[in-house]
Design goal:
mainly beta, Pnp Oxidase, Chain A, 13% helix, globular
Amino acid sequence: MHSFVPDPASTTDLRRALGQFGTGVALITAQTPQGPLGMTANSFSSVSLDPPLVLWSAARASKRHDSFTQGVAFCIHVLSAQQMDVAKHFARQGHDFSPYPWETGPNGAPTLHGCLATFHCDTYAVHAAGDHSIILGQITSAAIQPEESDGLLFKRGSFGRFTPDD
């Protein structure tokens, strides 16, 4: 076991250690004055059932950060294993929605088709947290795909899917 103290000199070690924890992959979208905006995130988590709250984190260095932290509503899309191209596309840039069918959701945020679940949220709170901002959303509308499908996962810097041990 390699032990270290997290500091600026050990950033690579810290990223590798954090990467040992596999996460789901989500696409966050919002309608902005400049048009629809998207950002891939693996920081999505449920917070509370009453009231229904979720969170995700945006890097403060991201050009898309301010649009999401200053917005009033957003949509979280849980991506399927077949949507790796969506995750990679919106990880690189956030304004080009042309390759993917979408419609305006109940809170005005772009809603992509074919996702495992969607959560339309009003921004509940935004908290500064180091080099990220934690964005809490209150779910106002949700949808789930009726058929079971594998979710897209992210671990050790790679996308993949879960294979259960039977």
